[in-house]
Design brief:
Elements: H1 2-11, H2 19-27, H3 32-38, H4 43-52, E1 55-57, E2 80-83, H5 103-107, E3 113-117, H6 121-130, E4 136-141, H7 158-163, E5 169-175, H8 179-188, H9 190-193, E6 198-200, H10 212-221, E7 227-231, H11 244-253, E8 259-263, H12 290-299, E9 305-314, H13 318-326, E10 335-341, E11 363-367, H14 374-383, E12 389-393, H15 400-409, E13 416-420, H16 427-433, E14 443-447, H17 477-480, E15 494-500, E16 521-529, E17 552-561, H18 574-582, E18 593-597, H19 611-618, E19 625-628, H20 634-637, E20 648-651, H21 669-680
Parallel strand pairs: 1-2, 2-3, 3-4, 4-5, 5-6, 6-7, 7-8, 8-9, 9-10, 10-11, 11-12, 12-13, 13-14, 14-15, 15-16, 16-17, 17-18, 18-19, 19-20
Amino acid sequence: MPSENAQITTMIHLHDLPEALLQQIFSFIEPTRARNSASLVSRRWRDLERRTRSALSLRGNPFTIPYPPSPFPRFPSLSSLDLSNLSPWGRALSNTPLLVGPTLPDKFPDVTSLTLYSRDPTALISLTHHWSKLKRVKLVRWHNRPSGAGITIGSDLHPLFENCEEIEEIDLNEFYCWTEDVTEAIRSYPLVAKGLTGLDLMLANATEGFRASELVSISEVCPNLQRLVAPCVFNPRYMDFVNDETLRKLATNCPLLTTLHLVDPTPITLNNNPGAVNNLPENNPSAITPARLETLFSSLPLLTDFSLDLSHPILDAGPALEALGQRHAGPLVKSLKLGYFQGVCKGKWLHLDGVAVCGGLESLCLKNCADLSDASLAAIARGCTRLSRFELIGCDLVTELGIQKLAFGLRQTLKDLTVSRCSLISAPALVNALKLVRGRLERLHLDCVWTRPTAENGAEHDPLDDNNDLNGLCEPQSKRCRYEQDESWECLRELSLWLPAGEFLFPLMDIGLDDCPNLNSITIKVEGNCRAKPDPRTFGLSILLQFPELSKMKLDLGEAIGYAFTAPFGQMDLSLWERFYLHGIGELPFLQELDYWPPQDREVNQRSLSLPAAGLIQGCFSLRKLFIHGTAHEHFMRFFLQMPNLRDVQLREDYYPAPENDMSTEMRDKSCGRFELALNSRLVPD
């Protein structure tokens, strides 16, 4: 009998499972490549995959004929559709076969979430006419706002409110338009606006933001808002700026808010010249007062995610944050982002104050908090024991000792850490301070400042010389010996680096980041002036060979400024800098995906791939996906056809303003089509 049962068991195949059970199994498959592979096994599996797929991002060129391919598959359960990455990227879709007739609505009948690059209102008019049940819409546009006949204030959004009466969430974080467009469109359809629960209105390249009257008018017609993200004018020097009264009206009109992010997009500029006087906190405070913040928190009992990023300081904000942490009604606040707050946490003695009272916090970002000290971080670590994500930006009093205290207190929960623009913390000091949590961190961002900061007397600052080393943690020496220091960053999956222009990557291995066995993604951002001659040595991408699992890289040179064309005498153009930064990328045998932002010349709005860059990227034979966030010449793009594993290439001008008229030899619609046809006609090994 046992042998017969074993024989029967071995004869049962996965195909023999009931249809309902097999369909349930397919619904748990999330990776896109795994789904694509499963659909190639058999016709039955292909049909099951289509019936259970819930999200899809369409790629390819809709300007080619025939498109969509015939017969085009039907996805009856698909609810989320992304059309923002169609090629040629950023072009208007109004005259393409993709939008002629009800092709897409017939194949995707159940779509409720749509992402679309809306160059002009025509594409949105065509799609929303068929998909009137849309609930979530994200619009993308990095080109200039269209002008001309038929384009009026709010015309980009009118089709959305006219045809989709059940719309609940609108995301305009990557959509360039005017604040007047948003306000006018929402106020014109009060019945539809009443059903809105989420508004993300950061607006691509927003320079000023919403005025007080605009913010109040939006809140008046959207009483059921649960999420609001918006840039605002907080500067008291401007007319109609956001102040205490604006926040009071906002809380009164939208009492159901659970997420509130208000950001001042004005950059903070400090004069670093000797003897210059900056706008100090006591001389130029914000129009938002701590008393009003305390009232705001009490008026929004459901608030769990709050962000207020200002360019003028709020003085003595500690009592307001204590009121937020000690409120009895509603859930605990879980996420806070505070920009230019003073008195966030004093950390004196052993009692908790300020933000340290918010014991339910899981994510905390402190930005430009001038009086935040090492003792403050120790108090935050003792009070906010659930923190898994912590960001520290522009806090000049914090030293390596403060990071040690934070890491010690959060050694069981901290997973994501960002430390940036803190003048007393160098990269070696930060890595040294994280010895206790090396084996637990999953994501880390650091500024690659390789030299340790110096004290006023010229000597190097050593935090271990301070009198109050780790006593602020209230742990005796006998207990501290129990916590072993991790030598390997075994859980680190993502690493983010910032470097000034001309700095090298080689010291990264010497400071203690050489053992990251599971690192699969790295982001490198370079910022600064590239108008001088680069160093004859290379940047150092070859050291990334130390990370065997590294498959994704983002190399962002978009803030590296130089000369795109003929440089003045004694200066170098950007092509030499691209050679400096990309040298060694061909030596990375496991790299599969690359996002590359070329350096720019702001005077001509030029971000274009150079000949040395194209040649060096061509040498990376393992690449499968390549996204260039800029323009390129067609004959340079032809280099990539020699890469055997490359399957997906796209030019994305996703920066404002995206160039309207490219050079005569740069990629245009027809040249993109020719390149994609040549790329797709090749045989790929897998």
